[in-house]
Design brief:
Structural class: mainly alpha
Radius of gyration: 22 Å
Shape: elongated
Distance between the termini: 64 Å
Helix content: 25-40%
Length: 163
């Protein structure tokens, strides 16, 4: 059976277009929306998340201790990242939008005092046990303490730049 010349040209064209489309950067590699990728500003993100948690706690009528701390201006934000964790600014934006978009019952799981859940969009980095190395975290993935971050705990009163 002979393949027509038009069929060969069409197949070549389709293959070329697919090859061009597959050469695009992986989603997230550019920082999002055409911006250059930049590292997450920890203090800015932590304070924005604290304000958002307080607003959502009030909106949803949540009365957990975590909500009380989120709404107390004298309490530092409760967010910690391992020193080796380097999320992008875009990651922080996605996290905040995800937390804003959930229903009140789901948000209540995020501010639960006994076992708070973390939305997948906010699980930037996890500290995992290294085989053969004793860790104070035990086995499994656990967030690091704020003091383990490079630069120490967040500064009280840092702003998020108005966003």
């Amino acid at each position: 059976m002979t393949i027509s010349r038009n069929a060969t040209r069409t197949r070549t064209f389709v293959t070329s277009v697919l090859a061009l489309l597959l050469m695009a950067p992986t989603v997230g590699d550019t920082g999002g929306c055409g911006r250059a990728a930049s590292e997450l500003d920890y203090d800015r993100h932590a304070n924005a998340r604290k304000r958002q948690d307080c607003a959502r706690c009030e909106e949803c009528g949540s009365v957990s201790e975590r909500c009380g701390r989120a709404c107390d201006p004298k309490v530092l934000p409760e967010l910690s990242l391992p020193a080796t964790c380097k999320p992008l600014s875009h990651d922080g934006e996605v996290c905040l939008r995800a937390r804003e978009a959930v229903s009140c019952p789901v948000f209540a799981t995020y501010v639960d005092d006994k076992a708070p859940a973390t939305p997948p969009e906010c699980a930037f980095c996890l500290v995992t046990a290294v085989p053969g190395v004793e860790s104070s975290f035990g086995s499994g993935a656990t967030p690091a303490s704020p003091a383990s971050r490079v630069g120490g705990p967040p500064k009280l009163g840092a702003t998020d730049g108005g966003s």
